[in-house]
Amino acid sequence: MDGGQILAEQIRRRREAASRCEPLDCGHRDPLDCTTAGCGQAPVSDETPAPEPAAVDPNAIAELWANAKAAWTTRAFPKYGAREWTALSPDDPRRLAAALEAAEMWRKFGDEEALLQWFREASRARPSIADRRTRAELDAAAKPKPPHQLRATRGWPPIAVPGRPGKYLTYRAQKAA
């Protein structure tokens, strides 16, 4: 669908929805019909309308892009978001070059602060091998521990005993002597 077909479809759906609404005092069902016929009142606003944006010359955009490309190539621009960058006028090609550089860095490396944190962590001094555990400490830590004694508790269902099919632990109340 092209833009005209989409717009025509939207208008058709709006008309169908308006036909299901209660009519206004003037008899129209769609407020847009009411304002075009002149029977409705246009909304009153005390605000002055925003000025129309000035038409942009396509040659000016091409020139801005070419100058920004030249500034980016020579690296003659401040860092994006820095005070020097905010002091530049909006149509300064160096401003666009800095924004393009920041976008490219984000695409390649992601968040700059996270990248710097990763570099700090990667370059952090590690403890020497001499400060680590000895072989005897590692051997003691690797020795098998005694098996855990299973005990059934009140309120729980019977527990199947591993390695002994058909055998279950059940809770039996201990009687005090």
Distance from first to last alpha carbon: 89 Å
Number of helices: 7
Structural class: mainly alpha
Order of helix and strand elements from N to C terminus: HHHHHHHEE
User: Radius of gyration in whole Å, from Cα?
Assistant: 38 Å
Strand content: under 5%
Task: Name the helicity range.
Answer: 40-55%
So what's the oligomer here?
Answer: single chain
Mean pLDDT: 78
Which term fits the overall shape? flat
How do the strands line up in the largest sheet? Answer: 1-2
Largest sheet: 2 strands, antiparallel
E-strand count: 2
Low-confidence stretches: none
Give an overview of the whole structure:
A two-stranded antiparallel ribbon has the order 1-2. Helix 3 crosses helix 5. It is mainly alpha-helical. It has helices at residues 3-19, 31-37, 58-74, 83-87, 93-109, 112-122, 135-142, and strands at 159-160, 168-169. The relative contact order is 0.04. The longest helix has 17 residues, at 3-19. The chain is flat, with a radius of gyration of 38 Å. Strand 1 (159-160) and strand 2 (168-169) form a beta hairpin. It has 7 helices and 2 strands; from the N terminus they run H-H-H-H-H-H-H-E-E.
